[in-house]
Structure formats: C-alpha cells, structure tokens
Amino acid sequence: MADIKVPGPDGQFSAYVAEPKATPAPGLLVIQEIFGVNQVMRDLCDQFAARGYVAICPDLFWRLEPDVQITDKTDAEWQKAFDLMGRFDVDQGVEDLKTTLHHLRGMESCSALAGSVGYCLGGKLAYLMATRSDADCNVAYYGVGIDQLVGEASNINRPLLMHMATEDRFVPKDAQQTMLDNLQDHPFVTIYVYEGNDHAFAREGGEHYDPQAAELANKRTLDFLRQHLT
C-alpha cells in the first residue's frame, strides 16, 4: 500500500495503490466520493487488494486542492466537499481516470484486464468510464446525475453494474425513473434497486450505512468483477 504519482498531460497527480499478495492480478480503478482519497477510499482499496485486485484510487480534486482527505462527520467537511464537487470539472475528471487506467495497465503487478468501481460522485464517473473508456467493466454505486447523461448509453459496449437506492436524497425519484427507463433494458447494463435505502448505504460507518444492503451489493460487485476480470 503506497501513495504514488501518476503522470498526465496536464501534470502529475497522486493516487493510492494497494496490491494483492499474488501478482500479476487484474486492475481496479477505485473512484472517490466527494471527500477525496480519504481513509474510506483507502480501506476500500485495501479490501479489493485482499480480494486479489491491484486497486488504485487517484486524486481527482488535484486541480482544485491536491490531496484532499476529509470525512462525512461534520457540517464543515460536508460544506467543503460540496464546494469541491461544485467546482469539479467532470470531463477533466474522466480524462484523469482514463490516464490512471492507462497507468494501471502498465504496472508490472497488473494483468491485461482492468475495470472501475465508483461511489457517489465516483458512481457517476464509473458510468462515464463505461461510456467513454475501454475499461473492461465498471460498477457504479448510487451515482449522482447519471439521469442527465443517459444519452451516452449507446456508447456502452462493456458490462456495467449499477446499484440504486430508492430513497437516495441526492437522486430524486424522477431521476431514478429516467435511469431505469433508459438503461435497464440495455444489453450491457445490470441495475439492482435497494428498496428503502438512502444514499451511501454501503459506506461503512456512514449515517445511512445498512449492513445487510451493503453486504448484498458488495457480494454482487465481487461476483461481477470475478466474472469480467478473470
């Protein structure tokens, strides 16, 4: 487990990397929430590494404030997170993710296959990795704003798994319906709906953490990754 620098066309940015004991192994791009590459994201990388993946989580806020690591525990941190998200350039973020994916595939510890998994803001970006990159598969947990991007769905030609919470305070019911209407019949898209759950139900220690729903979603994710990255 280490922090590294990823070279990109606009400059280098940091990323956290966790590697499994046995390599080469499939690669997994872990995409941050609005709180930066914090302990939650680092723990997720460690957990995926323990499952046999080379996991890398790049700092996507580096142009705004490098190396942000905040939590969801105080109002001040929430306000900072919302400010960063409001100023974040999604298109640049996708390009940084594509750069990181290329870097990941070039690592000696990584085999030929590599996918992505993202949470919250990262869920939206995982969807965009499905529409704009050659990642081998992608997983989106409660992605925000995907309803405004369903027009890109025709570009999806690799498996995409989506986890949607019916009571997501950041994804209104009409937005959820737009996503279902436009994506659930797509041949490469699988959507699981979690009744009664709120946003970030899989964030361990979070306000809306639901152990049962999280366990189910995480099992589905691991089964999906095992199917498409081995």
Automatic annotation (TrEMBL):
Top-level taxon of origin: Bacteria
Gene3D superfamilies: alpha/beta hydrolase (3.40.50.1820)
Boundaries of every Dienelactone hydrolase domain copy: 13-228
GO molecular function annotations of the record: hydrolase activity
Protein name as catalogued: Carboxymethylenebutenolidase
